[in-house]
Amino acid sequence: METRKVQVTGGSTYTVSIPKTWATENDVEAGTEIEFHPDGDSLFLTPRSEEERTRGTIDITDLSGQALTRAVTTMYVSGFDVIELEGTEITTEQRSTVREAVQGLVGLEVLEETRNRVVVQDLLDSSELSIHNAVTRMRLISLSMLEDAIAALSERDHDLARDVIGRDDDLDRLWLVVSRIFRATLRTPKAAEELGLPREECFDYHSSARQLERIGDHATKIAHLTLNIDEPLPDDVVEAVNELHGDAVEVIDTAMDALFADDSEEATRLANEARTGVRAIDERVRAIDELLRDLDPTRAQLLGLVVDSVLRSADYGGNVAETALQKAAPTP
């Protein structure tokens, strides 16, 4: 760390010198324009770039299938606006994989294809994206998936179960958008400034979005389990699972209300209420375990997995409540 003394020139202008090592590494010289970004009691500076869109290149010669999909997704989440995929000769299978990956990412489009090159570009303006709106949408989708998964289980509705499984892709797309926005705020203060949110708050949204994505995964798991059920379930077990689901949703909803609350006292009250609800759910799960003991082992194991998924969903709501408490706490 280096320190500099602030000086006054012209009687009213404050000046401070820039460390030469940093200036050299970032191509800063006489005449270079510098951007300043206030962040609380800190002030960040960065060289102004003429390049409006960040470009990234990756060699996909030896990549295929999931590895290639993951490579495209990683470049997207990392914040590249233009992704250039290059190879000695890009195969038809690779092109198909790239197109499928692009379809699963919000804003991406394939702009150019040649024998050894595919160019993908993000057509959305990052400054117009709202991390708050994305997390709000994730809340609605994840809770509707969980509700419909339990309904499909209760009614043995396989079509509804398949619909729940299909909606998981929508939730994953939003999760990747939130991750992209969050990483942008870590990389440059300008991104947080355009969002109009402190970077700490962006972290809280990102952390909570991860919990919502996991809730969607468990809803999908319940839907898959439902596809293996052909015979009616005992009424007392169905009723108990529905009550457990109601308690879990109340925890998640209360925790999300706490996260979005503007008043710190209200946020703290709601978050503590959600945490208390998680402890109450543990008692209900033990009661359901007693009911499952009277069933045959195969069915008891299947329903036990369903109960575990609902319990874990409530736990994720408790994690959101913990984040809401931290968000509401006084800033050091």
From TrEMBL:
GO terms for biological process: intracellular phosphate ion homeostasis; negative regulation of phosphate metabolic process. SMART domains: SpoVT_AbrB. This is Phosphate uptake regulator, PhoU. Residues 8-53 form the SpoVT-AbrB domain. It comes from the Archaea. Pfam families: MazE_antitoxin (PF04014), PhoU (PF01895). SUPFAM superfamilies: PhoU-like. GO terms for molecular function: DNA binding.
